[in-house]
Amino acid sequence: MSLPLVVPTQLTQRLARADERSLGISALACLDRCLPLLEYVEDGTGAALAVDTGAALRPLWEAAEGGDAWLGRLRAAAVGVVRAAEGRPHPGPVAELRRAADVPRVYEAAELHRWAGACSAAALAVHRYLDGDPDGGPLATGELRRQERLLDLLAAGGDGLRAVLVQSDEGKRVLRAAAARRARRR
């Protein structure tokens, strides 16, 4: 099942105003927040995937300077996300997460905008899936607000990156708890 990739208008407008660095960091944050979902995806034997979601993208937060070199390191880290899900049954959000791991080859506004939109839509799809509501419930609503807040923090400059990381980590904890609850219900 593939979930529709939908980004609400208010978020699309914020993404349209964002600069390259903000787009890259926003996309990284969405991807990073959704990685805990992979901990609850089972392989064909019923075992959960072994993915170190805590460490997969952390080095990229520590040096989020942007540019082609940073994007290259992000692409290399995203390969691990794709490999973790390869050959596994893909519930809709895992397929969306794999698409979000398709990091652009060049650090330019158009490519970063496309990727940030895909990551945003994937994160919202993951949260709608965990809500059990294709139109979105409290998890998806919270994720939408989080994405808007992160883009606003990045646009404000200053110490926005630290605040974005804190907000994204909180979102990761929320998603991990929701995925764990869903796994226990199965």
Could you characterize the architecture of this molecule?
This protein is an all-alpha fold and 186 residues long. Helices cover 67% and strands 0% of the residues. The longest helix is centred in the C-terminal third of the chain and has 26 residues, at 160-185. It has one domain. Helix 7 packs antiparallel against helix 8 (160-185).
Name its key features.
186 residues, mainly alpha
**Helix percentage:** 55-70%
Stretches where pLDDT is under 50 for at least 5 consecutive residues are none
- Sheet having the most strands: none
Instruction: Bin the strand percentage.
Output: under 5%
Question: What class, by secondary structure content?
Answer: mainly alpha
> What is the rounded distance between the termini?
18 Å
The count of domains is: 1
Mean pLDDT: 79
How many individual helices?
Answer: 8
Number of strands: 0
Helix/strand order: HHHHHHHH
Shape: globular
